[in-house]
Write the structure tokens for this entry.
Amino acid sequence: MPNSETLDRLVRRVVTQVRRRRVEHYALRGAFWASLVSVVLLAVKGPLGTWALPLAAGVLVAGALGGALWGALKRTSVADAARLADRAWGLQDRVATAVDWMGRSDRPPLVDALVADTLRRVERLEPRTAARRVIPRDGRFLPIPVAVAVALALAPAIPVPSGRLPDFSVGAEEEQQEPRAGSSMTDERSRPAARDRLKPPSFEERDFATRTGGTGAATSGDLSAVFKDTALSAQRPDFQSFLKKGDERLKLLEQADRLPDLQSDFTASQYKMMFRKSKALSGGLRPDQVSPQKLKELLEEMERLGRKGGANWQGDASEGMEALEGGQPDRALEAMQRALDKMRAQDEGARSGKNLKGGRESSRGAAAGRDRRGGEGGGPEDQDFGEGEGMMPGRGRSNSPKGEATQRLRGNPYDVGVEGESRRGRKDGYDTNMTGRGGQMASRLHYLGVVGQYRKMMEDAIARESIPRDFHSQIKDYFQALDER
Amino acid sequence: MTQDARVQDFVASFEGLRAEVEKVIVGHREIINHVLIGMFAGGHVLLEGVPGLGKTLLIKTLAEGLELSFSRIQFTPDLMPADIIGTNIIVEDADGRKHFQFQQGPIFAHIVLADEINRATPKTQSALLEGMQEAAVTVGGVSRPLPGPFFVLATQNPIEMEGTYPLPEAQLDRFLLKLRVRYPAIEELNTIIDRTTQARAVSVERVMSGARVLGFRELIREVPIADHVRALASTIIMATHPQWEHAPEAARRFIRYGASPRGAQALVLGAKVRALTEGRFNVSVEDLKALATPALRHRIILNFEGEAEGIDTDTLIGQIVDSAEAITAQGKEAFVR
């Protein structure tokens, strides 16, 4: 192994250079920040007196020295110095590689050749500085605070506010007040305000009972002077009389039980809630496809509601649960349907008792009432499925010359259950459960309704999607064929 | 022989071989250097360029300059793996008994020219995989070593895409370097015209044996590399990965998959050869920078955005190298901060 003294000497030289640059760098930075402190000290040299200048100079020197010390104490690794030497003299990482591999025991034979080659090159190097000077950004602005500090040192002391408040005492005010022919209003405005500002108001001085007169002269400590000559100051606040006379709004609040029961609106009724849940559970599914767990939860909830309100559907709900436990979901569904019917009947009864308008049900109820007055028809169910009477044109008592619109469907499209044999010819209902276990159920879909929905979706799709124009008529013909079925 | 003399011997041999190749090939100094670097590093080289630029001629000339066996495989769509590796055939001995005998394929040569490699099917391309990585092929359950030094030089045409099968990533990764053969300058073109259209025979001498190539390969692996240079190589590789936390913005935006550790090996090995060719005993940062593009351009897979924007992989690698240098230099070179 060649003697590496030359390499070590080169690296030490670079380390020394780096340390020197660091001292410069951090001394500049320290001097900059210390100069800012010196500017502040010189700005307040009035209170500091003769100490300001030596103190500012001391801070500046201390900052620079502190920075220099910090830079001198920072460590520089040998590898970094070697890299810097490579870069400075264009040695293509020879020094760094040699320094890196010299101390290793597993070095290949080529490392010796590398070290020898590097030493030869280093010995031929001309001495120059490897570490370039880097002036910090804050160091570049050092002249500015130094110049400001010098200017402040030469300038007279800046007057500093004493921190005392102006003297607002009466005597002082009287001295400053111009003698003028003041009216009574100006006297009233100025005098009490000036006195009150100096005198802290106390609670005992607030004598509201004395605020009756509008013209009385203000006395010392009388806060009612503020309200003098105003309309409000002449009125005595009497909340008891206000309550006795009563406000219409308060009266309304006292009769809250006569207000419409918004909480029991139809949209939030128990029946509606349970109806939605039941439809979400069984919508479009056969009884054996309904989740028994969810059906059980629904029945339990119905039973709980019935128990709570003492209603008559509790038994149906219990029966449904028993059927479900016995593995008969179809019976459970039937029991649930019965319970729902009873809930609806009770709900409608309650609503008609309150004489509230509740949309379709109320109109149906009103129509039923008309029928009852006419001695025909029965409950709401009879109105829906009445024969030959009611709203059919020319057959009922409708005021409209064409008769009222036929209620083909109930308002809720799910609430359809037509039993019995369907008539011949064009149908608006299609039996979806003709075979299998569900064949016993009278569950039907609205054929025309479903086809209509699909037709609308088809038209949207044709407008939205990029379907060739030649196919539009074919697609429409297909749906037309479905419609004529 | 001293280490210094070994290095000088390598430098002389390298330049002698290059001079022989340059008797035939005009220009393309950098391509020739990189082909030789790939060969001495023990890797394989893929040359990409339009037809007529002398890719095949370069490889044939190189083979002529070496005392090594050479075989050329013209890749076509109907080429089968057995056509490359060889197969067992039934032979009849003197006693009239029949037995299987392995018939070596063209891969059993020191230098294999896989011409227009992307014209063969992936199945056939894969036949080279084991040979390129393990320097051995397995036929009929028997592994057969390939002669050493084993060196595959492949060419492919980047413009004719019809009827070609782009090399899969696993195959590409096995090439140490991928070189792009550019069109020659006008002065070089004039020289080519003069040299190839006159009745003047050019003979290439064999200047290097296989044993010397293997010896130089050992020497190359002895070249030391400093910690900070190795760290730069690792950082370059990591910076090609978009998932890496310090990856440059360009890598995050345009790269789908970065280079594998094999890329780092290729980078450092190539840099070692380059250092020795300059008579230097150590790897420098400049060596890494010079080898980064040919060593990594086929190991970086662009994402859809990169493909759509037409991002040049070479430019991207340049940005990655700059970024990696900034990362490794952070806090190291700013001594006075």
Observations:
- Chain A has a mean pLDDT of 69.
- The beta strands of chain A are 430-431, 444-445.
- Residues 458 and 476 of chain A are 8 Å apart (CA to CA).
